[in-house]
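Per reviewer request, we include the raw input and output of the structure prediction for the construct analysed in the revised manuscript.
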Amino acid sequence: QVQLVESGGGSVQAGASLRLSCAASGRTISSYRMGWFRQAPGKEREFVATISWSGSSTYYADSVKGRFTILRDNAKNTVYLQMNSLEREDTAIYYCAAQTSSAAQTSSGRYWLTPSYGIWGQGTQVTVSS
């Protein structure tokens, strides 16, 4: 079974950058679509970005498009989220997730839905102040 551990969160000023990492252990994630989600206080968990197993295709939420970049290094079994031009509205706990085949089937592969991902990390806090 894959375990995911996020890191790289912190408290920054608006306009700053952060790079989140999601390190996998237990088995390789090279065959999984990976995603980043976030959950702000009092809100539902929402889709941020996803990357295909090969890294050839990526998709982003409109709210982060042009500011965030999702990357993966399969040799290091790690996925990254480069976040630039951070805004107060980006404050949330950020979660990394792996899309397992069973979860993908139940959600018809809709990568923007949380049920489409079967393995989750514990999250890392990002706080942006103005």
